[in-house]
TrEMBL record:
InterPro entries given in the database record: ACP-like_sf (IPR036736)
Lineage: Bacteria, Pseudomonadati, Pseudomonadota, Gammaproteobacteria, Alteromonadales
Species this chain originates from: Shewanella loihica (strain ATCC BAA-1088 / PV-4)
Origin: domain of life: Bacteria
Protein name in UniProt: Carrier domain-containing protein
Length: 81
């Protein structure tokens, strides 16, 4: 697993746990809004946290659609390349 993937997985888990939810086991195929106890505010928090932790902003040129953790990892890895 790449460093970016590790950060995204860790931050996702932290956001879920910090709001008092039990974090289910999940993998990169998990979809944020259907498989995980997350809402749109949690996603916004995740994006801000990822920018602070990675220094990357794949949304600088506008919103890019993603549903799963794997899709978000790809966005960040492509930005880092």
């Amino acid at each position: 697993m790449s460093k970016i993937a590790d950060i995204i997985m860790k931050e996702t888990r932290l956001i879920i746990e910090n709001k008092g939810e039990i974090c289910p086991d999940f993998d990169q195929q998990a979809e944020f809004l259907s498989d995980l106890p997350m809402d749109s505010l949690d996603l916004a928090t995740l994006i801000v946290s990822l920018e602070l932790n990675t220094g990357l902003d794949p949304f600088r040129d506008g919103f890019k659609q993603f549903h799963s953790i794997a899709e978000l990892i790809t966005l960040y890895e492509n930005t880092a390349a």
